[in-house]
Amino acid sequence: MQNQEFIRSHVLVIGSGGAGVRAAIEASGSGTCVLLSRTIVGKGGCTIMAEGGFNAVMNEADNVSDHFADTMKGGAYLNDPELVRVLTEEAPARINDLIAWGAVFDVTDSCTLCQRPFGGQCFPRTCYAGDRTGHEMMITLMERLSQTSVKVYHEISVFDLILSQGRVIGAFGLDRKGKLYVFIADATVIATGGGTRVYDISTNSTSGTGDGYAMAWRAGAELIDMEQVQFHPTGAVYPWDARGRLVTEAVRGEGGVLKNSLGERFMEKYDPDRMELSTRDVVARACATEIQEGRGTPHGGVWLDVSHLPAKQIEERLPVMLEQFLKYGVDIRTEPMEVAPTAHHIMGGLRIDPFCQTTLPGLYACGEAAGGVHGANRLGGNALAETQVFGKRAGSMAGTEPEHEINSNQEQVDSAKMMLEGYLTGDVSPDMVKFDLQRIMWHGAGIFRTKKMLEETRIALDALSRKKLKAVDPSGFISCCTTRNMIDTARLIVTGALLREESRGAHVRTDVIQDWDNQSSPFGHTILTRTGATIERRKA
Amino acid sequence: MMNITVTISRFNPDTDEEPRMESWTVEMEEGARVLHVLDKIHTLDPTLAYRSSCHAGQCGSCAVRVNGEPALACTKEASDGMVIEPLNLPVIKDLMVDLVPGINAIPRFHSSECGTLPTLEDVSKIKPLRDCIECLSCVSVCPAMRVTDFLGPTSMRSQMRIALDPREPGNRIREAITQGLFTCTSCNRCWRVCPKNIETPGKAIEKLREIANREGLTLPRHQEVAELVRTTGRSVESGKHTFLDLVDEVIEPYGEVKREVGFFCGCMFNARLPERAMDMLEVMRHAGIRVIIPKTQVCCGSPLIRTGQTSFIDELKDKNIRAFQERGITTVMTMCAGCGATLKNDYDTPFEVKDVSEILSETGLPPLTKVPITATYHDPCHLKNGQQITREPREILVTAVDKFVEMPAYCCGSGGGVRSGMPDEAAALGELRRAEINKTGADVVVTICPFCEYHIQEHSDRPVKNLMTVLVEALGKKPTEL
Question: Domain A5-228+345-399 is classified in which CATH homologous superfamily?
């Protein structure tokens, strides 16, 4: 094992998507800040590939209480109302930050921000930059970051948090060659994004492996609602290796229609009022049902069609979609797309208060790694808003942590080294374990769930977790650690799914017959900690 | 399912002296991308190093060279027999290159803290420059960066985006100049390899040079050229003979008229290398093509557009368009790659514009006797990148000489005002051509562009010939001498 490197800062931010970079920008105002990323900073995470938009009340005819109500209703009232209040109140100011920093959002000819309708909204409040909104945000954030004193570490993968007397004092990281880095900080911010790469079909980037959930859970933090996994209704189905790739909701926002193989606009059967712009949980189940019942397309999807729209509208508002499909031989100006549900977003995550404090002292969380903002189903356009609202809060609050005298915990360093070295004598390829895990999760903890399936899945995951992962040399440590985190994340999802004996939002238990609706549900959050798992019961 | 055999460049700087090529055969699904092939190989050899993140062409992590050309691994379709190499940047390991210094070098917008929105007009101008995913494919191919301190194409793209944004507090044109604004040869290679198809030379570099021009910062040598065009209509001073003085307005072919074209001769062929244009006319006479040469044509304006001196460009365009339109010409033939690219990309013409090699390919070559030489071909950038023509000149050359050998395509350094304005850079690039030419072992270097011919001749141990001159020889005639 090569010698480790120690890096001390006031604030440590883990993850370089929208939330992490926003947190680092904010934290840099109150002392030294380290931002680290498993990718080149700014290229990782899912923000950069987010397409559709950013929800914020920017029009006098709209109001924050409507944004609040839409978000709560869309989230099946499982959201933490205080977090939703913060999200909806602060989203406009955060989009204005981006504009001051140079973001180029689409504007109207009367010099206001363009807004398009997304699912589950009573007012079109999704601001956008074509269909590359997240990319626009990331380059803006990176430009801003370059003007701060944040110390950036590229291509460092964090695999465990470091604890001292019940307090998080930093994290262990690995570089590409397998060298150990010990990051010590007064406050640590987890902005590691989501984890739907645990599914075979997923929209997530390579980094969507749930590392933040797994590390924080192992460190003793509380996680909530991990069973709430959003399946986006429209992922690509062809080519096979690129299946799951996101086809933005903006396609439907711009007027795209869904049809089955019989040419029926099937949303009439599932939500005749909102049709294609129903919430994602509803549309995803509708698509899955059509496919399951034999009304699917040749590649096992449904049709998503914008060919009735003017070509110019498609070219200007959906340029990335147009370009991507052209690369796969489909001209969406004249032909329909084939789409099917794909694992997209984990609504659950680290339990936070409105200041992004987790249940562990010294540990903050923001973005998709945190839970509670979206309840049981996230509205399209609320995730980009969340990254900025809670990224800023996390960075700002982490910056206010007093300086602690920290003695790095040599015992933990030694045990981390021992774990890593153990991988050199493992016998199973982490790539193979990932492959199995993704299939197990897709079939056993997907859109429609039963107790029996989930129990079988749990047993299969337990078996995977007992395998001895192999690194052929230290450069393979990262892959082993990531796989371990994926297994832990998958188990959290399944544990939550078994605990929640109801259908609520994205979580559907076909084996449970319930006589309550979302508002009268007897259940609150599922709460998962290292020492136990439970579901909150609401008072009648 | 299909079997795909790929060759991958492997290199670990800690243990290897130099990269080695390694072959793999893997079974892939229909439509698989290069990245999927790499992922598959990774399951068999977890030490293979490469990057990927978004899988959707948006993060710019995964650019590699596929069969020599930069491409995003996540969007480029895999093909049997492909060769995958890292971008031409410092290699960290295998396909992973050091991107961070290049990304950090890109000039960044200065936050103004003023939240005013840009207007719709501002946004529509900025947007085409905003798609950059910082994959550095452009940086990996830029010739100017090889021999000067040029900060690179995407940095100039960023400077133009900044210049267009009313929120940017300062004027940064002087910064762009110190970063190498005038070192770009306008070879357009950056545009052709850009996965987002950003036309950096035309939409950023030339536009920044226009701003520099308005601020009086155009290089003196470039100003002289502009003055010459303004006063004479030509960018090259007349020598003993000019082509337009020497020839009749209509040149009839020897036999049946198969086709009629108008000829746009350009300043270099008119005043400095009229012999080459005369050779071309001889080829046309044999090929059955009637050539009409309007004498009222003037400089196409390329030397002005490339250097940002566009104040009277519309007058030149009008004159040239009228010269051909008045004679009812529907096809205008160019022989100078720079004029051709300009008429095709910078003009809105009521006639079609074709390079001489396109015309000959379409109409057919007269019977030729192969010249007993080994020839290599230098791709003029304004033909290869500006007009995307590479096949036709090679096909013609192959029929005209005994032996043809390839040479890697690379800018010779004469374009974009660099030969006049940055002679050291132009010479350094010319010397790189010399090295490549020598490696081919060819007797003769053939090209079409008069700028390339003139410049490479100064940096070559072998004679440089115009393709038309070679064709005249293959017709059994003597090339024109004046």
Answer: FAD/NAD(P)-binding domain (3.50.50.60)
Report which of B208, B240, B213 is spatially closest to residue B225, judged by C-alpha positions: B213
Residues of chain B with C-beta less than 8 angstroms from the C-beta of A328 = 31
Contact at CB, B59 and A113, closer than 8 angstroms: no
Give the CATH fold of the A410-537 domain. Methane Monooxygenase Hydroxylase; Chain G, domain 1 (1.20.58)
* Active site (annotated) includes residue A280: yes
State how far the Cα of B133 lies from the Cα of B280, in Å rounded to an integer.
44
Give contacts of A132 with chain B, Cβ < 8 Å: 58, 131
Give the chain A residue nearest B110 (alpha carbons): A101
* Closest approach of A473 to chain B, Cα-based (Å): 8
Given A94, A125, A243, A280, the catalytic residue: A280
Which positions in chain B touch A434 (Cβ < 8 Å)? none
Distance CA B224, CA B316 (A): 17
Q: Which residues of A154-179 are buried (b: 16+ CB within 10 A; e: fewer)?
A: bbbbbbbbbbbeebbbbbbbbbbebb
Domain ranges of chain A: 5-228+345-399, 234-343, 410-537
CB B163 within 8 A of CB B211: yes
Of A37, A438, A475, A388, which is closest to residue A204 (Cα–Cα)? A438
A436: closest CA of chain B, how far (Å): 13
Q: How many helices (H) and strands (E) does chain B have?
A: 24, 16
**A102–B168 CB contact, under 8 Å:** yes
Three-state secondary-structure class, residue A351: coil
Among B30, B46, B104, beta carbon nearest to A239:
B30
Q: Which of B14, B30, B59, B124 to mutate to test binding with chain A, by most A CBs within 10 Å of its CB?
A: B59
Reply yes or no on domain A234-343 having CATH 3.40.50.720.
no
How does pLDDT run along chain B (482 residues), one tens digit per residue?
899 999 999 999 999 999 999 999 999 999 999 999 999 999 999 999 999 999 999 999 999 999 999 999 999 999 999 999 999 999 999 999 999 999 999 999 988 776 688 999 999 999 999 999 999 999 999 999 999 999 999 999 999 999 999 998 889 999 999 999 999 999 999 999 999 999 999 999 999 999 999 999 999 999 999 999 999 999 999 888 899 999 999 999 999 999 999 999 999 999 999 999 999 999 999 999 999 999 999 999 999 999 999 999 999 999 999 999 999 999 999 999 999 999 999 999 999 999 999 999 999 999 999 999 999 999 999 999 999 999 999 999 999 999 999 999 999 999 999 999 999 999 999 999 999 999 999 999 999 999 999 999 999 999 999 999 999 999 999 999 98
Minimal-distance CA residue of chain A relative to B130: A136
> What are the tokens at B75?
């969007």
All residues of chain B having their beta carbon less than 8 Å from the beta carbon of residue A432 are 43
The model's pTM: 0.95
CA A343, distance to chain mean position in Å, is: 10
B33/A239 CB distance under 8 A: yes
Of B33, B53, B127, the CB nearest to A206: B53
